[in-house]
Amino acid sequence: MSGEQEKIVVAAAGKARGYRWVICGLLFAATAINYIDRQMIGVLKPVLQVDLGWTEAEYADIVFWFQAAYAIGFLGVGRFIDVIGARFGYAVAFFFWTLAHCAHGFAHSVTQFAMLRFALGIGESGNFPAGLKAVSEWFPQRERAFATGIFNAGANVGAIITPLLIPALTMAYGWRAAFVITGLFSLVWLVAWLALYRSPEKHPRVSAEELALIQSDPPPKVERVPWRHLFFIRQTWAYAVPKFLTDPIWWMFLFWLPDFLGRRYGLDLKSFGPPLVAIYLLSDVGSVAGGWASSRMIRAGMTPNRARKLTRLLCALVSLPVVGVQYVDNLWLAVLLIGLATAGHQAFSANLLTLPSDMFPRAAVGSVVGIGGTAGAIGGM
Questions:
Q1: pLDDT of residue 9
Q2: What is d(CA 275, CA 278) in angstroms, rounded to the nearest whole number?
Q3: How confident is the model at residue 10 (pLDDT cuts 50, 70, 90)?
Q4: What pLDDT, in 10s, does the model give residues 67-96?
Q5: Is there a contact between 25 and 4 (Cβ–Cβ < 8 Å)?
Q6: Cβ-proximal residues to 124 (8 Å cutoff; 6+ apart), any chain
Q7: Helices marked H in the chain
């Protein structure tokens, strides 16, 4: 990098504003929608069990088939997005999962729900490969964990909106209409994505200074890695094994937390909203703070490898007190312990999700994220 380029990069780095943050906002919104669609079945579980006569085992089977599809989809969808790019890859995945989500309103049996959850899982498996590929295209390494933390926080915003919005829609229009209404409204995002997203090099809203910042990292030595070879690279497993070990924790919170609060503390569809909102607000804080922390360490001169590992260690330690929640009778103390654990988990995830773009060329990021996502979904199953 020439001296003049360095001056441009430093000047751009000093400015927090830039079109790349609009892209980050779109990723945040898509992830929020993704989690609303995903979590609705957990919030509606008591209603669906009464209306359709599900047993606990049948509900677990429905959740299982979503996770199975998520595992299968990640492998193929990650590669698909690497081939056709983030813009159209994300659009295809989003449209497919929204169609499956709307169709839930017309299901009548456990088998039909399981089939639609399977379709939803295939579509939703495109969210993180596409989102992280977009981050790798739009953000330099020093900002990626922070940007990932912000867009990953959309998961918690979706989890906050769901217990506030879905009970109101269900009581007003019924649970079937709730699936259809939320699906149709989310299509607004798809229009915005196709209208606003381009690669930084081709985008008219990106200034020369911002483009210099985005492209300030040294180019990778290897531009392309054959997909099958990724399974024999050590760095792939440095991402996939932690996903296998930590994703099941988030799956547990997502699908079973409303039921736990209902059974342990006597909450119902009208009353478990505030505790869930508090838990996922803490998760949001953790996601953004975890991404900010490692990015701050890198800007201070620490290597990305050390910064990511140190942050993840601290996040893991923060999550440990949740083991005592089973002995807590006070609802809000339980909320605090669970919220601390989810905050630590999301901060850990914000840094873990950044690793593929740290270690692999952009052309392989979606594929590696897909492999890790499959490992995480298998762990959840």
A1: 41
A2: 5
A3: very low
A4: 889 888 887 887 888 888 889 999 999 999
A5: no
A6: 34, 37, 38, 70, 73, 93, 97
A7: 3-13, 20-43, 45-52, 56-84, 86-103, 110-124, 127-138, 141-173, 175-196, 208-214, 234-265, 273-299, 304-319, 331-352, 355-359, 362-380
